[in-house]
């Protein structure tokens, strides 16, 4: 009597697939870095450091709810803040820019104004409370 052998087709072993997937998952979790948002990067003074400042050394920067800027009482486009502040700092090296925004001011407008002040090399920026 002749014995017939069945030839099975090639099979892929799936028993270790879960182990491999788990190891790859752990590898990517361990090696991936998450970039943290750094924010505006403003150095705040220590608590209790309050001093009287002369009015001539303060430049008020007011931002309304639609993102328009008043710089020293004059309407100023956001793109021009850099030039105006540079000129005023050259005139008065003790100048402090006081930024005050309306409660409904878009965050994008606020950040744009702060960026313009940083581009003007304004190191003394005061952020006023909006009431």
Walk me through what this model shows.
- This protein has three helices and five strands; from the N terminus they run H-E-E-E-H-E-H-E.
- With about 130 residues, it is an alpha/beta fold.
- It has a domain at about 55-125: 2-Layer Sandwich (Nucleotidyltransferase, domain 5).
- It has a five-stranded mixed beta sheet, covered by helices on one side.
- The longest helix is centred in the first third of the chain and has 15 residues, at about 15-30.
Structural class: alpha/beta
SSE order in H/E notation?
A: HEEEHEHE
Biggest sheet: strands, sense, closure? 5 strands, mixed
- In the predicted model, the low-confidence regions spanning at least 5 consecutive residues are none
Rg over CA atoms: 31 Å
The CATH class of the domain at 55-127 is Alpha Beta
What portion of residues belong to β-strands? 15-25%
Q: What CATH architecture of the domain at 55-127 would you give?
A: 2-Layer Sandwich
């Amino acid at each position: 009597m002749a014995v017939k052998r069945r030839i099975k087709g090639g099979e892929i072993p799936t028993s270790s697939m879960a182990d491999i997937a788990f190891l790859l998952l752990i590898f990517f979790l361990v090696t991936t870095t998450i970039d943290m948002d750094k924010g505006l990067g403003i150095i705040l003074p220590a608590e209790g450091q309050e001093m009287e400042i002369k009015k001539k050394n303060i430049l008020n920067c007011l931002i309304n709810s639609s993102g328009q800027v008043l710089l020293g009482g004059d309407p100023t486009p956001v793109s021009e803040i850099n030039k105006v502040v540079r000129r005023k700092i050259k005139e008065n090296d003790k100048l402090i820019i006081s930024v005050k925004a309306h409660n409904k001011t878009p965050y994008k407008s606020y950040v744009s104004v702060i960026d313009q002040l940083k581009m003007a090399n304004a190191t003394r920026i005061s952020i006023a409370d909006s009431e």
